[in-house]
């Protein structure tokens, strides 16, 4: 793989690999660690046996009779014949085992002092009520339910209520637009949407319900909308469709008997960006997913459910929220914090206040957040008592060594191991990560595959590269929480993940990586047209389609340019239609808002350049590498494969005055 494809310059790479700081696990943590070195060998000797042991952490109504059915790859079945209920495992089981009074969720609203605590017993009652209410609205086993919510306890309750009924949920991030919601609802055929009037963000009530109303004008699938009242803001109401949560759920019985479902019963569909314009509905099923989420959460964070207080700052609208805020932590019966708002409201240091107040011991967040705290300086966290912390996690994008060391030193007081966890929406669970009681941490490296997982870095032919070399990140063996398919599109599932190394039968992750001289993995970033902005996945094509849907735009090309704060930033190049003239003074702002309206605020380009031409090869393919050079203010690279090599001069002249 060339550096051009991975988007990483040779210089950055060699700087990274010169990193020689090492951090040993703290002796006390190592002595009591959930997993020790021996787990790697044990799992390698009997991988299926190892995963069966992990599945035993769950409560099964019927035990499986086969661990893995890989007879028809790439379609895996795990714990074949087993039956269980995911919600029972996340809630009822803890109550049945006498832990009903333990706090499940310390919920912290954005307005200061707006807080709520739910024990496992209370969670069980609410989930049962919500399941009864959904059943009353006609939701049955197998029916899809869309959830479009802020970070409030009802969101978790809604997900678990769906799981309890065997109704796969699809959670759509609250920052996505009505269009994005409608297309996801349409794709998976959800007839019921659960939403709220709004939520709090940066000190103000932001609305959600109007987007659902608008989505209903774009798809005719939605039959009922269940609305949680969070902010009390005005909402428009359709008596035939809209139902208040407090009426329907509030009046429902707290008695609900969970039914056991097949281990392969669909649990949820999570949409994520791919290389084409249409988001992919990643399907996760019940037994394998829950096993993977629960085991990794326990092992990688060295979780002691009786004493730890855990906090994952991710939004439930992403896979991290699914696996490490809902299913993993609740299956393990830990006490956790859930926070509604932004890190800097009402003031910088809000996160550290929360850690201090609840004595959070395990904290999981993203490098982009860490970098923004670094900018604010260490005085703010230094003025809080963060001594409860014992393990820190990072996810979503490569963590640069400086951010890793700052996180460990300033937030973790120099005591805490940092687990840099590599995984994806598709993998459902963390696959490459240090183990806090075992690994000698290297800032910037996700280290090696966890026990039970076979990852490697291979070249174009699928051959494992020697230590010290780079290539593509692959997974060589199936794992329990792997995606089962793309909703409604088995062919796309095969083409996207399993065709690149078909002969070898490897899963192609879409990431470039390098093995250092010790064989440890450094994930470098995507090798396809997927961008990673603040740890969120965005597709270049999806944003290009949004841009060309604007009447003034003739053509558009989008690239991810390196950005100090967000990892990558969206940069767009557009050619306007002749009749649009120069587009008018506000054309750039108009187009940025158009993208926001089409997809959501996270997709809004940082920069839009109006250009007369786009660089294309003779076969008409846009050469994004050259556009990335422009976006990153670099000298433009080799232009010899362009159909017209003067185009780059035109673009550079045109872009010099761009915003
Ligand atoms: O490029 C990798 C990057 O995020 C991608 C997966 O994005 P998504 O499905 O949205 O899931 C994000 C949360 C799991 C990967 O293909 N990525 C994720 N974690 C890391 C990472 N890159 C480097 N290091 C990581 N720890």
Automatic annotation (TrEMBL):
Pfam families of this UniProt entry?
ACAS_N, AMP-binding, AMP-binding_C
Write down the PROSITE patterns for this protein, in alphabetical order: AMP_BINDING (PS00455)
Tell me which domain of life the UniProt entry assigns to the organism this sequence originates from.
Bacteria
* Maturation and modification: Acetylated. Deacetylation by the SIR2-homolog deacetylase activates the enzyme.
- Residues the record lists as N6-acetyllysine modifications: 621
Write out the entry's keywords from A to Z. Answer: Acetylation, ATP-binding, Ligase, Magnesium, Metal-binding, Nucleotide-binding
What EC number(s) does the entry state? 6.2.1.1
Necessary cofactors: Mg(2+)
Q: Does the keyword Transport apply?
A: no
Q: Which residue ranges have biased composition labelled Polar residues?
A: 1-15
The Gene Ontology terms for molecular function here are:
ligase activity
Q: Does the keyword Transport apply?
A: no
* Protein family per UniProt: Belongs to the ATP-dependent AMP-binding enzyme family.
Instruction: Look at the named UniProt entry and state the broad enzyme category this protein falls under.
Output: ligase
Q: What does this protein do?
A: Catalyzes the conversion of acetate into acetyl-CoA (AcCoA), an essential intermediate at the junction of anabolic and catabolic pathways. AcsA undergoes a two-step reaction. In the first half reaction, AcsA combines acetate with ATP to form acetyl-adenylate (AcAMP) intermediate. In the second half reaction, it can then transfer the acetyl group from AcAMP to the sulfhydryl group of CoA, forming the product AcCoA.
Q: What residue stretches are annotated with the AMP-binding enzyme C-terminal domain?
A: 542-621
Q: Which residues form the AMP-dependent synthetase/ligase domain?
A: 97-479
Q: Which residues bind CoA?
A: 201-204, 320, 534, 596
Q: Which residues bind ATP?
A: 396-398, 420-425, 511, 526, 537
Q: What is this protein called?
A: Acetyl-coenzyme A synthetase
| Reaction catalyzed | acetate + ATP + CoA = acetyl-CoA + AMP + diphosphate
Q: Which residues bind Mg(2+)?
A: 548, 550, 553
Acetyl-coenzyme A synthetase N-terminal domain: residues covered: 37-90
Gene3D superfamilies per record:
3.30.300.30, N-terminal domain of ligase-like
| NCBIfam families reported for this sequence | Ac_CoA_lig_AcsA, PRK00174.1
């Amino acid at each position: 793989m060339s550096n051009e494809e991975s988007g990483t310059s040779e210089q950055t790479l060699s700087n990274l690999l010169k990193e020689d700081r090492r951090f040993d696990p703290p002796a006390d943590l190592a002595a009591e660690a959930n997993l020790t070195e021996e787990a790697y060998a044990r799992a390698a000797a009997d991988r299926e046996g190892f995963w069966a042991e992990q599945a035993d952490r769950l409560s099964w109504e019927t035990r499986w009779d086969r661990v893995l059915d890989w007879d028809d790859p790439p379609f895996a079945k795990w714990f074949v014949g087993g039956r269980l209920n995911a919600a029972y495992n996340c809630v009822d089981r803890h109550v049945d085992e006498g832990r009903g009074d333990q706090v499940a969720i310390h919920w912290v609203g954005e307005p200061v002092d707006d807080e709520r605590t739910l024990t496992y017993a209370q969670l069980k009652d609410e989930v049962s009520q919500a399941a009864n209410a959904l059943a009353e609205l006609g939701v049955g086993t197998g029916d899809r339910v869309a959830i479009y919510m802020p970070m409030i306890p009802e969101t978790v309750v809604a997900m678990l209520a769906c799981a309890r009924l065997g109704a796969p949920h699809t959670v759509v991030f609250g920052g996505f637009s009505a269009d994005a919601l409608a297309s996801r609802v349409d794709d998976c055929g959800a007839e019921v949407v659960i939403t709220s009037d709004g939520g709090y963000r940066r000190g103000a009530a932001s609305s959600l319900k109007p987007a659902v109303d608008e989505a209903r004008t774009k798809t005719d699938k939605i039959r009922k909308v269940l609305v949680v009242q969070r902010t009390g803001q005005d909402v428009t109401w359709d008596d035939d469709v809209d139902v208040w949560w407090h009426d329907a759920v509030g009046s429902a019985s707290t008695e609900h008997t969970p039914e056991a479902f097949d281990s392969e019963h669909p649990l949820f569909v999570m949409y994520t960006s791919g290389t084409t314009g249409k988001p992919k509905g990643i399907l996760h099923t019940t037994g394998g997913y829950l096993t993977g989420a629960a085991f990794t959460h326990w092992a990688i964070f060295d979780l002691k459910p009786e004493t730890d207080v855990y906090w994952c700052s991710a939004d439930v609208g992403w896979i991290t929220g699914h696996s490490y805020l809902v299913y993993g932590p609740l299956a393990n019966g830990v006490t956790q914090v859930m926070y509604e708002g932004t890190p800097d409201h009402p003031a910088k240091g809000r996160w550290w206040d929360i850690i201090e107040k609840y004595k959070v011991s395990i904290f999981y967040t993203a490098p982009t957040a860490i970098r923004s705290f670094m900018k604010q300086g260490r005085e703010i966290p230094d003025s809080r008592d963060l001594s409860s912390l014992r393990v820190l996690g990072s996810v979503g994008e490569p963590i640069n060594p400086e951010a890793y060391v700052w996180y460990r030193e300033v937030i973790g007081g120099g005591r805490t191991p940092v687990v840099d966890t590599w995984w994806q929406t598709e993998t459902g669970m963390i696959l490459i990560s240090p183990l806090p009681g075992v690994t000698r941490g290297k800032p910037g490296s996700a280290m090696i595959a966890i026990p039970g997982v076979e990852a490697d870095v291979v070249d174009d032919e699928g051959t494992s590269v020697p230590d010290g070399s780079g290539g593509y990140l692959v997974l060589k063996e199936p794992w329990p929480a792997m995606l089962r398919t793309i909703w409604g599109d088995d062919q796309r599932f095969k083409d996207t993940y399993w065709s690149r190394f078909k002969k070898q039968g490897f899963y192609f992750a879409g990431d470039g990586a390098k093995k250092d001289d010790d064989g440890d993995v450094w994930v470098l970033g995507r090798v396809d047209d997927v961008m990673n902005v603040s740890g969120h996945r965005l597709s270049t094509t999806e944003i290009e389609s949004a841009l060309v849907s604007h009447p003034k735009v003739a053509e558009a090309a989008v690239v991810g340019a390196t950005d100090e704060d967000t990892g990558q930033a969206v940069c767009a190049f557009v050619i306007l239609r002749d009749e649009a003239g120069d587009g008018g003074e506000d054309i750039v702002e108009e187009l940025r808002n158009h993208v926001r309206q089409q997809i959501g605020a996270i997709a809004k380009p940082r920069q839009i350049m109006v250009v007369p031409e786009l660089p294309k090869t003779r076969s008409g393919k846009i050469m994004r590498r050259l556009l990335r050079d422009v976006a990153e203010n670099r000298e433009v690279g080799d232009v010899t494969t362009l159909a017209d090599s003067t185009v780059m001069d035109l673009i550079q002249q045109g872009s010099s005055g761009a915003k």
